[in-house]
Amino acid sequence: MREAAVDAEGQAGGGLPAELEGYRAQFEAAKRDASELVAGLSDAQFNWRPAPGAWSIAECLAHLNVTGQNFLPRIDRRIREARAAGMLSEGPFRYGLLSRVMVRGTEPPAKLKFKAPKIFQPMSEHLIAVIVPAFMTLQDQLIERLRAARGVDLGRVKVTSPVSRLFKISLGQVFPFIAAHERRHLWQARRVREDANFPRA
């Protein structure tokens, strides 16, 4: 079980500055969207694929769970290291063009399609009772990290990608990137449910 994240004053909870509050609202919205998406579905519907090789609703959510869980320890480590090094700031923060373009490019509808890295590939069969609660828990864990990041210099602190040590993104852009990535695959999952051949029973 992961150690609970704490805020800049060493206590859980507390208000967030506007930037982080905006990200918190996005993760809360992801919980609502996922709940609406899976409402009334059976496990068979949850795992239905619109075409060979296409992802099911289950696989979309499982992919998000795997991705988020791979980012969490990297976020935790960089927050700890930043505090120890005194890399603190109340902002406002400025971010590089590459990270801003990456966040925008991740938003749905998908403009570019690419195969998910192997470590982010979901398994093929999943239970709603397992995958959906895990997704909700992930959103709460991400919100905990927002609180932990309060007071850290979100622009200077970089987080290494789980895919490649060569790729780094500002801590302040990791959160909107993850949120945009979630919207992308929730959008993909909604398209599955709206497919004309989606099983209705």
Give a count of the beta strands, DSSP E runs of length 2 or more. Answer: 2
Topology order in helix (H) and strand (E) letters: HHHHHEEH
| Overall form | elongated
What name is given to the CATH topology? Four Helix Bundle (Hemerythrin (Met), subunit A)
Q: Can you name the CATH architecture?
A: Up-down Bundle
Looking across the biggest beta sheet, what order are the strands in?
Answer: 1-2
- Please state the average pLDDT score: 88
Description:
The longest helix has 29 residues, at 57-85. This protein has a single domain, classed as Four Helix Bundle (Hemerythrin (Met), subunit A). The chain has a two-stranded antiparallel sheet with strand order 1-2. It is built from 6 helices and 2 strands, in the order αααααββα. Helix 1 runs antiparallel to helix 5 and helix 3 packs parallel to helix 5 (128-149). By secondary structure, it is an all-alpha fold. The N and C termini lie far apart (37 Å). The chain is elongated.
Task: Give me the secondary-structure topology.
Layout lengths: L17 H21 L4 H4 L10 H29 L11 H10 L21 H22 L8 E3 L7 E3 H23 L8
Antiparallel strand pairs: 1-2
